[in-house]
């Protein structure tokens, strides 16, 4: 006789994939509901690791979605206004520890970059990147995921000038694309760097 317990355990984790657990990443709140609609926010609250590609379909069916205010491809539409209390204050050249929690692997590529929130473009080059082999399934299930994929340091660039001096102007974005699953995952950390 088959047991349903393993199936239930699997069902409860199928939606989960990965997120930045430290420093504090953006979370959904009232500003996200106002911009992105309740369907998107409920999906993210239900699973804070939801992949980006599933969100536009939810948004399209929600009359509360406002495309002008909610860029689903930037921090999954999560809004700075909901996260103003979590702004990190860093200095140029500072080493920042980043911890990622992977819950279901999809081998692919990933990077951590400083992103301009107005343009949704990377400023400079990625601070760290994995061109292939990120979140490898075999390593994950063998509990041998390389530590540098889940607990690593990045150095805050010294050439940001005043671009990231105002809270909300920039995020530190962890971005991962599972090539087999064809799904993107991202977390954003709000921060400032004082102008020189």
TrEMBL record:
GO terms for molecular function: metal ion binding. It holds the Pfam family LPMO_10. InterPro entries: Cellulose/chitin-bd_N, Starch-active_LPMO. Its cofactor is Cu(2+). Keywords: Copper, Disulfide bond, Glycoprotein, Metal-binding, Signal. Residues 1-16 form the signal peptide. Residues 17-191 form the Chitin-binding type-4 domain. Belongs to the polysaccharide monooxygenase AA13 family. This is Chitin-binding type-4 domain-containing protein.
């Amino acid at each position: 006789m088959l047991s349903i317990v393993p199936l239930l355990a699997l069902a409860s984790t199928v939606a989960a994939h990965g997120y930045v657990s430290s420093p504090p990443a953006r979370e959904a709140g009232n500003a996200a509901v106002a911009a992105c609609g309740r369907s998107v926010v409920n999906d993210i609250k239900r699973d804070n690791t939801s992949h980006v590609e599933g969100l536009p379909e939810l948004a399209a069916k929600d009359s509360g979605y406002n495309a002008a205010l909610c860029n689903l491809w930037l921090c999954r539409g999560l809004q700075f206004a909901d996260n103003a209390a979590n702004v990190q204050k860093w200095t140029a050249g500072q080493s920042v520890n980043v911890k990622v929690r992977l819950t279901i692997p999809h081998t692919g590529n990933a990077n951590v970059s400083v992103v301009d929130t107005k343009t949704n473009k990377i400023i400079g080059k990625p601070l760290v990147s994995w061109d292939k082999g990120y979140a490898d399934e075999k390593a994950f299930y063998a509990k041998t995921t390389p530590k540098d994929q889940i607990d690593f340091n990045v150095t805050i660039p010294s050439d940001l000038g005043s671009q990231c001096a105002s809270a909300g102007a920039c995020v530190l974005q962890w971005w991962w694309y599972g090539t087999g699953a064809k799904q993107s995952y991202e977390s954003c950390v709000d921060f400032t760097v004082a102008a020189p």
